[in-house]
Design goal:
Number of helices: 6
CATH class: Alpha Beta
Structural class: mainly alpha
Strand content: 5-15%
Distance between the termini: 13 Å
Largest sheet: 2 strands, antiparallel
Shape: globular
Strand order of the largest sheet: 1-2
Length: about 110
């Protein structure tokens, strides 16, 4: 896989993960935290920047591979004014790769043809 895609994977206490663009959100929650949620979405493909944005104190835990999914959930809730969410571990790796630019399309076509 290309380096920019590999950099989207993170080593957490529970294993190695990548984010997915799959959200279920109650409409009233969007109004409450849209401003901050937009920033999280903007940083979604830069895990280290996203982590630093959440809480710089988490960086050491991450570097020592002690950061857990629960730790991240707590910080997201704090940042989003108490809105709680959960990380879902999915058996479907396709969720972690979106095709939103030409280079993504080329990669997916290459993977499907090999």
């Amino acid at each position: 896989l290309p380096r920019d895609i590999l950099l989207r994977y993170v080593h957490l206490k529970e294993g190695v993960f990548t984010g997915g663009n799959l959200l279920l959100v109650k409409p009233h929650v969007v109004e409450k935290c849209a401003w901050e949620a937009e920033e999280l979405v903007r940083l979604r493909k830069k895990p280290f920047s996203l982590l630093t944005h959440l809480n710089r104190k988490l960086v050491l835990s991450y570097l020592l591979r002690r950061l857990s999914i629960k730790d991240v959930e707590k910080e997201v809730a704090r940042l989003l004014a108490g809105v709680k969410g959960v990380g879902v571990i999915s058996p479907y790796p396709e969720i972690g790769l979106d095709v939103d630019k030409l280079s993504d399309l080329v990669l997916v076509e290459k993977m499907l043809c090999s």
